[in-house]
Design goal:
TIM Barrel; 7-stranded parallel β-sheet; Immunoglobulin-like; 6-stranded antiparallel β-sheet; single chain
Length: 585
């Protein structure tokens, strides 16, 4: 999860950025390889050309007799180790391989011959192994292929562009697997994940794409970006981006479909951040706060295998857009200290995951993630409400067992970013600003033993995209086991939001009569979010099908998914063993 698109090679300026971010525990996540650069910069000192005997095909002779770049290989071993895994993405096939005479300009290399495009990709992976000593573990087929500027067939009349996209992905996966069986191949590396667009037309295209690639791809990858807007000025009417619930709506819809079609694959979120630059203090804040907001949400999703937070330390190809470093007048790199603050916030966060709940206070959009490392407990709190919070912490232990409480704050106030560390005593109210992610560190006097553990298992309903306005039932098979607690996560969507409340029944028992969905209905844009409904374990029939009714007496919307999260009691030893082999830091 602690990944960014930092440099993994030996470019001196890119390397300087990587060395700085490694200080905070942030490693390279995902890179991109534009294949048309092989015709300009080459590979292994050789430039790619079209085969003069076969039009539209590369001359593969440049890939013969390549030798190891020992300097680069030794640097990689020193910084990352032999077993380090990262992702990369293909894009921009050379112009001589590109589809011709398209309605839209084919500037990003949608290929004409899928098999030949896949062969070139496989050769490039082999060349990386020979020259660099390594290659990416996860390869995306083509960057942001869900939009027409990247996959021009989306703009061709009379063409089923999504069918062609699936065929291309299948061909790429099959060829790469044949040459490199250890490599994981996936896509569609989606841009603009507004799956609700045109009455969920885009969602249905994504679901069909998954069905068509089920037997070929190893993962599904997507991008999520926020717009340049502050929740403070919009409140519940804030609609841009995904952080007020659309993220879970999208991922749960895709995941639910995976389960129903026996196509369960991990997600890779290979880009996630904000659609604005980092130049001004305000823009730096908007980017920084969204990086933390996304990170804390992905930490709660074990179906996300890798993320890459959009924070390029040194974009040396665009010196007018500083991020972590800026260029001085004499073309030297200078660190921007405030750009490190969001990484400093997360630097020490580690340990075994422990439970954390926001309490029964009626608040929405407060997100927590907690971990314990020996005597130290870390609690990350993310406030996406348009008002400040005062936290009262209940640790469930005697306050006399606590040695110290500190709070690392990173927030925006009166036009400036602020970073500070506060000391607290048990019983103090801890301040949290609007859109602040704050880190609380609790040090215990002794390392107390764990008294129990739970395994949270998410199961999904047998239907998705259920129209609202009439009673509809969903059936969920609940696994057998010793349940400690359970809750429903119900995602719903409607243009303009809902004015009617949500009524929820489990096996005929009313759990919620008037659950509020939209706080301020009537906005012009789509509302898509989720509610959490606690379920008494005694209501559930473990090992059997359970009937869930989520009813909204208002037409024009959808219950997009119904998921049940059940926490099954386990021993502490089991949990600690899982933490050593799991995906968390």
């Amino acid at each position: 999860y602690w990944r960014i698109p930092s440099h993994i090679g030996k470019h001196p300026e890119g390397l300087k950025g990587t060395l700085e971010t490694l200080k905070y525990g942030f490693y390279p996540g995902r890179s991109i390889l534009k294949l048309d650069t092989l015709t300009r910069w080459g590979i292994g000192g050789r430039t790619l050309r079209e085969d003069p005997r076969h039009r539209g095909k590369p001359d593969y002779s440049i890939f013969k007799g390549l030798s190891r770049d020992e300097e680069r290989w030794n640097l990689y071993l020193k910084l990352f180790g032999r077993d380090f895994q990262y992702a990369s993405c293909f894009d921009n096939w050379p112009a001589f391989m590109a589809l011709q005479n398209t309605r839209l300009p084919n500037t990003r290399g949608t290929p004409a011959d899928y098999a030949e495009a896949a062969k070139l990709a496989a050769y490039v992976i082999q060349a990386q192994k020979e020259i660099q000593g390594h290659t990416a573990h996860w390869w995306e087929v083509k960057n942001e292929s869900t939009i027409s500027s990247e996959w021009v067939l989306h703009g061709e009349p009379g063409v089923d562009s999504w069918l062609e996209l699936a065929k291309f992905h299948n061909t790429m996966a099959d060829v790469i697997h044949r040459y490199h069986p250890e490599i994981k191949v996936g896509g569609p590396t989606s841009a603009w994940m507004a799956l609700h667009f045109r009455d969920f037309e885009l969602a249905r295209k994504q679901l069909r794409f998954m069905d068509r690639t089920k037997d070929h791809l190893d993962f599904y990858s997507h991008h999520f970006y926020e717009g340049k807007k502050l929740i403070l000025s919009s409140g519940e009417r804030y609609w841009q981006g995904y952080l007020l619930g659309r993220l879970e709506g999208c991922l749960d819809l895709l995941r639910n479909h995976m389960v129903l079609t026996n196509n369960v694959k991990p997600f890779i979120i290979s880009e996630t951040g904000t659609l604005c630059d980092f130049t001004s203090e305000l823009n730096l804040w908007i980017n920084s706060k969204n990086l933390s907001s996304y990170l804390i949400r992905y930490l709660e999703r074990p179906d996300v295998r890798l993320i890459s937070l959009w924070f390029i330390p040194v974009p040396w190809w665009n010196k007018e857009s500083p991020i972590l470093f800026e260029y001085t007048a004499d073309n030297q790199l200078r660190l921007r200290p405030k750009a490190t603050w969001w990484m400093k916030l997360w630097k020490d966060f580690r340990g075994v995951r422990i439970g954390a709940e926001p309490g029964d206070n009626g608040l929405r959009h407060v997100h927590l993630h907690a971990a314990r490392d020996g005597k130290v407990i870390y609690l990350a709190v993310n406030n996406l409400n348009p008002f400040r919070l005062a936290l009262n912490l209940d640790f469930g232990i005697d306050p006399a067992l606590i040695r110290s409480i500190s709070q690392t704050r990173f927030y925006f106030d009166r036009g400036k970013m602020h970073f500070e560390i506060l000391s607290h005593r048990p019983g103090d109210k801890l301040p949290v600003a609007v859109e602040e992610t704050t880190m609380i560190r609790i040090e215990l006097k002794d390392e107390l033993p764990f008294t129990g553990a739970v395994n949270e298992v998410t199961v999904y309903g047998d239907r998705t995209l259920i129209p609202t306005g009439r009673p509809e039932d969903v059936h969920i098979m609940v696994p057998r086991g010793d349940l400690e607690y359970a809750y429903l996560r119900i995602c719903a969507s409607r243009e303009g939001g809902f004015t009617a409340p949500l009524r929820v029944l489990v096996n005929g028992k009313v759990l919620a009569e008037k659950a509020v969905l939209t706080l301020q209905p009537g906005k012009k844009d789509n509302w898509w979010s989720w509610v959490k409904i606690p379920v008494p374990p005694t209501l559930l029939r473990d090992g059997k099908s359970n009937t869930i009714r989520a009813e909204i007496k208002e037409e024009g919307g959808y219950i997009t998914t119904v998921a049940l999260v059940g926490a099954y009691r386990k021993s502490p030893d089991w949990a600690l063993e899982q933490s050593q082999t799991g995906m968390h830091k």
